[in-house]
Amino acid sequence: MKKVVVGMSGGVDSSVAALLCKEAGYEVIGLFMKNWHDDSVTISDECPWVEDSNDAMLVADKLGIPFQTVDLSDTYKERIVDYMFDEYEKGRTPNPDVLCNREIKFDVFLDIALSLGADFVATGHYCRKGSIENENNTVYRLLSGVDPNKDQSYFLCQLNQYQLSKTLFPIGELHKDEVRRIARENGLITAEKRDSQGLCFIGKVKLPDFLKQKLAPKEGDIIEIPADTEVLNPVSSISADTMVAQPQKIDYQPEMGKIVGKHEGAHYFTNGQRKGLAVGGTPEPLFVLATDVDKNIVYVGQGKEHPGLYNDQLWVDQDDLHWIRKDLMLKIGEQKEYKARIRYRQPLSSATLEMMDNGLLVSFYEPQFAITSGQFVAFYDEEELIASGIIQ
Questions:
Q1: What's the CA gap between 50 and 62, in Å, rounded?
Q2: Architecture of domain 3-211 in CATH?
Q3: Of the residues 21, 47, 100, 157, which is catalytic?
Q4: Is residue 47 flagged as an active site residue?
């Protein structure tokens, strides 16, 4: 009998994942990861780890499977929290959920599971795994979940072939309402539990309060940029001879607009952000167009249709490009059309990928809202996620 260690978070999805693994004939062990201690920055008790751990333990008891808790908080702080602070300090916006999957759930957690003799780990992610035989090797495929409203493949965009080979996604073929129905029918305490929100393993937080633990407040100007400013939507400069891209970004300067308010730190804001500016009196809501952490300036524009919020190109450095399907890697000078998304739950958009000497140029058919440095872009071939990268 093959052994599966299930990452049980105390939610309904991982609870049903454990149930389905047991019903499939696996020897199942439930494992809860404790990754955060500091409750001082959370703004709700929606995701307290003690309650979640207890719920996971009760589900394991109901299923008659062994259950353990492991404390990974030191590793989580080093690999996720410290990275977040560093990125925000640079004026970039990281995605802790993608990092958490790459660095914790499918790395440290996977190693612990294998040390317990597991053949696989299983999680409650809404995605699927497939495989094809390619030149005597098995190539694993990361596929979208069947439920289009819950598909979580984007969050797993940094996984590799080894991690996929050791992973099961038991609920990937189900819709959320089916998962809850299965939990109810089997008397699982988590059947009606609300989905957790906020940072992976931390919960719902006021991000500025969280960042203030390390990044001190520093008052600066909020400058409004008129919609007709001529610097908007520059085109990337590409040398056809060397196949080296030199993508340009909008270079906002204070003299292009007017001061409309003050902020506590440019590193607390991100492109496309609307809430938290505390500036009123404008005909349309203000959105963050860009931040300059060196000058401590937040640039804003009125209305969601402000042209400064949209761009049709982005760039991924060579070192930040990750191929799940290495057999589909583009060669230098090669172009191919794929679908792409730059944030979770965003509809897929058609884009042309062009490989250069120093990275990947992504050109969208339609301008994208608030392309943000530090976030991940994921590339899809139909329902398969084949590659991803960190946006510059």
A1: 18
A2: 3-Layer(aba) Sandwich (3.40)
A3: 100
A4: no
